[in-house]
Amino acid sequence: MVDFLSLALKTTRLLNSISKYKFNQPPTTASDTKEIMPAESTQIALTEFTNPNLEVLYSHETIQQRIVELGAQITADYTGKDLVLVGVLKGSCIFLADLMRSIDLNLSIDFMAVSSYKDGTKSTGDVEILKDLSNTIREKDVL
To answer: Rounded to whole angstroms, how far apart are CA atoms 86 and 112?
Structure first.
């Protein structure tokens, strides 16, 4: 298991190496004060990851076990076929990566990006394809 403190330190070092702001470091000179990221931008907003009012419905272990089961079933069902896994960006990436590792077949992947929100926060009901598949899926089995 990865030590959280070690990971946080590595992340901070990485952010400091690629950012004009300095993370988690007190200013050493008066000129450094201008380069420190403003405090309001470092506050953690309430999200699905930090909201204490949300409950965990399925543990990480339960989800991973189900992905392994799905991978075994897909392996059995698609052996000898030309399989393409299609993910809808960006939400499917982590799941699709886990699923791919559980499938014991040669396969290919592709991605689409779609939106029904346009520039608003409420769905219009019309799906717009923002990024279509890069490769043809003609005569292939697609999941």
So the answer is: 7
Q: Which residue has the tokens 């014991």?
A: 104
Name the strands in the sheet holding 107-115, side by side, starting at the edge strand that comes first in the sequence.
Answer: 128-131, 107-115, 83-89, 141-142
Is 15:23 a contact under the CB 8 Å cutoff?
Answer: yes
Determine contact, residues 71/101, Cβ cutoff 8 Å.
yes
137 Cβ partners below 8 Å, 6+ apart? 84, 86, 110
Cα 122 from Cα 94, distance rounded (Å): 25
Query: What are phi and psi for residue 131, nearest 5 degrees?
Result: -140, 120
Contact 127, 114 (CB under 8 A): yes
Kindly report, residue by residue over 9-41, the tens digit of the pLDDT.
Answer: 666 666 555 555 555 555 555 555 555 555 555
The Cα 120–Cα 126 span in angstroms is 13
Indicate yes or no: pTM above 0.85.
Answer: no
